[in-house]
Amino acid sequence: MTSEQDGLWLGALSGMLGRSHRWQPEELAPTVATALAPLGIRTTIFLVDDEQRALRMIPTGNGPAGEPLSLEDTAAGQAFSMVRTQPTGDSGWWVPMVNGTDRLGVIEFAFPSGLDTRDEVLRRRCETVAGLVGHLVTVTAPKGDFLRQARRARPMSASAELLDQMLPPMTVASERLTISAILEPRCEVGGDGYDYAIDRSIARMSVFDAVGHGLRAGLAHTVATVSIRAARRAGGDLPAQAAAADAALLEQFGAEARFVTAILAELDMDTGSLRYINAGHPAPLLLRNGKYVKELPAGRRTPLGVPPSAMAIGLELLHPGDSLLLYTDGITEARNAEREMFGTGRLIEHAERHAAAGLPAPETLRRLAHAVAEFHEGPAVDDATLLLVGLDPL
Predict the structure, then answer these.
(1) How far apart are the C-alpha atoms of 358 and 390, rounded to whole Å?
(2) Beta strands across the sheet bearing 92-99
(3) pTM for the full model?
């Protein structure tokens, strides 16, 4: 790289950042393209759709977006799935676009003739641009509907829109821990959901399944989630968080008996000590070095919204390399045409196989969720949620 090229790269980054403070969502892709044009590089930005099946182009003008790109059989899909830059086969690269560790899509970088695509400095600079654009997509999307519309394969239900505003990113990571989650059917989900918080050495994770379907189930999930967040942020421990959810659900729904099953868990990353409450929910699964070890059956109490007569705390010691898989019954109770359930055994089998393949955590969950969707052969009759917590090896 020459000093002139260094200056052009710096100018491109500065141009994107400078415009980003005031741009509208539809200006993001054209601004990125304009910023890199002096380098002779053409860019096309693709966002993964809400259901994690295809990559959808962000239009740069008034024309229609191109055809979606499959995640299953394309170089672009491989770049997204494995979070690894792939050649386009046309003097360019597909570069994964993330916000932190949350996969958002890919950017196609097309280079002018004569540019050495084997240049590691060039590759790293394109990956830096993709990382910056990932951050900018995240902070720009709430300004309007454009980016959300660009990634949607079909309209969302009102309950799914509510959940979309409530949920944190699908993947987050620190130096010692990765948390990844996925929900199906994403555009119609009602009462399922998840939450997490990583602070200092403590990671807190929750998975919820509100009784019923549609918007009222989404409201029950929302009440449980926000009451637990408020108690947690006020310094409340796991029993205090569960009690706050009980009180809030009773206050809001009263005699309607709107309850929520849940796992509330707290992991000390320094010691590996896991504490958890199971409020009428399927037991978490523990995997060690990619192999199933056991269910975690302790910490049982009534569902949230039904105050228990006694409160138990489950305890488990996790080791570096362990994974904890939390799920809702929409996973294991999915049925095929012969009315056979997907079951815990198939869930474990798929989890072990994908772990052995060395897939990133979010890709493991994406494939697990789609395996369930393919098994039940038709529209889902229940929401299905997976959350995978991985304690990274030392």
Answers:
(1) 13
(2) 69-70, 54-57, 42-48, 102-110, 92-99, 86-87
(3) 0.93
